[in-house]
Amino acid sequence: MKNSLKFVQQCTTVFLFLILAACGDTTQKPCPECPPETVADKNYDNGIIMPEKAHKLFVNYEDRRAHLIQQYEDSIDGRAKDPKQQYEQKSQSTQSRNKNDADREKFKVAQYVSYEYEDLKKYLAYIENEAKLSGEKLTTLRFYFANYANEKKFDNDSLVKHPRQNTIMMSPTVNKDGADHIFYTDDAADGKRRIVLLDDNFNPRKAQEENQASPNTKNEASFLPGFFSFSNAPFYAPRSTTKNEGSSNP
What we know:
- It contains seven helices and seven strands.
- It has helices at residues 2-24, 51-76, 83-88, 94-99, 117-133, 206-209, 215-221, and strands at residues 112-114, 138-147, 166-176, 179-187, 193-197, 239-240, 247-249.
- A hairpin with a 2-residue loop joins strand 3 (166-176) and strand 4 (179-187).
- The protein starts with a helix and ends with a strand.
């Protein structure tokens, strides 16, 4: 009886020791499939500029671009009687223009474009996932200068928030044939995703035009009746990786 009790006590001690050892092990086990976490570098300075330089670049745009855009748009509206003469004159500051009630309805030149920070993180995660599903790796993120037409709506009837104003578009690239290319993704024949390379003007590369249709053509094909296929899934599912729709601010 004593031996049995002693054996139970020993087993209980070992059991409690194992529990405490397990609870005390706070080290994280390595995850081979998990992407490495980017560690913040307090000495990071790649492309970082001080406010003084940023101010000079901003003033350069205001002096060499913004007032020319203002004069051009005013000439279209009939506000500038002599565009050539207006071209040679430097426009008033934005602050002084806003004080004049007659000028408040004039075209306002965009000074910057802003994006919601959380939305930007979602976009980055989205394009990284599109590349990963296609077995590719992103190389750069391009920022394209663009301009909204003098229209109230886009072709898809969505509202044009900033008619005639400049904007930027973001588009990631992958490296193929020794060069970086923008792209969209599509469904490959094996059910996986693939990248469709574009040229710098967002047109399909000539080498691919014969083998694949444009995104618009594929969108139209996706609406064909389901009885043409063995399933109700769309034939094509092109997904763009280019982002626009930032907030343009004068």
